[in-house]
Amino acid sequence: MEEDKNDPIVPLAALEGVDVGTSWKKHRQRVTSSSTPPLLLLSFFLSHTTLLPLPPSLPPSLCPGIRLRLSSFDEHREVVIKACRDIQKSSKNAIYSTHRSDYSKARSLLTSARAGMKQALRPSLLLHPSLRHTGSVESAMEEFAEAVLFLIWREEGRLAVREEVGEGGEEVKEGGMEVTPIEYVGGLVDLTGEVGRFAVARATAREVTAVEGCLETVMYVAGELVRSTLPGKVNKKMEGLRTNQKKLETLRYELALIQAGKGTVGGMEGAKERGEGMKETEEE
């Protein structure tokens, strides 16, 4: 007897005792001949499967709150990234001004960087404290610390402590704007690169005493940090610090040869080239 093509397809939920093979045969006869085997099989299972009930919905007041929080976080993250870019730019320009002995301009640029911390960064970090530990904020604070350290070293001939670098009152500290110990150490390591460049400039003028002072500074920083337990990020910079120290030692040796009448002009030219290629300790 010919099969009735209008017979309904029995759902899987009611297939107890039903011949699935017969049901498949009927379904196969009802699909068009243009259906490919994968589509044929998919259409069979879809026609024999009932939808499961949806899970219970979340409380109405929870989802909007989460969405608003995430949206606020994303907006303030963009604000923080732009503010950090401005702080880094001001700090770098302060370093360049310090190299040119334009200390008043360097101080003005650092004041601008501090203002950016209070006005742009602080409100966002108070709302979303987790943003304080992002790479953009930490890099900006390290660059700022390096600029302050270099300015004080050039003006006063000493290394500033962390409290001098990150001071700004309780208002700044509450907003997460105080330079952390790790950021201070990172800035201190990066400082050795600037000291090395300054030493090369002094060497070209045959200022042996200034070069010796630069070498003593770098050796002091290296000696202090070697005795400390450093986190991975700062520890990676130590290789650059050791490279800077080695180049300064070579520079001092060549100056001693020149003083003794045994050096050559070529040696000083080589020293200048080393200054231009003094290894950066700052990470990208």
Walkthrough of the structure:
The chain has helices at residues 20-30, 37-47, 62-99, 103-127, 135-156, 162-166, 170-174, 181-204, 208-226, 232-235, 238-259, 265-276. The chain is mostly helical and 284 residues long. The chain has two domains: 70-179, Methane Monooxygenase Hydroxylase, Chain G, domain 1; 180-284. The longest helix has 38 residues, at 62-99. The chain starts with 19 loop residues before the first helix and ends in an 8-residue tail after the last helix. The model is unreliable at 1-18, 168-174 and 265-274 (pLDDT under 50).
In short:
By secondary structure, the protein is mostly helical.
Question: Main attributes?
Answer:
2 domains; Methane Monooxygenase Hydroxylase, Chain G, domain 1; disordered N terminus; about 280 residues; about 0% strand; mainly alpha
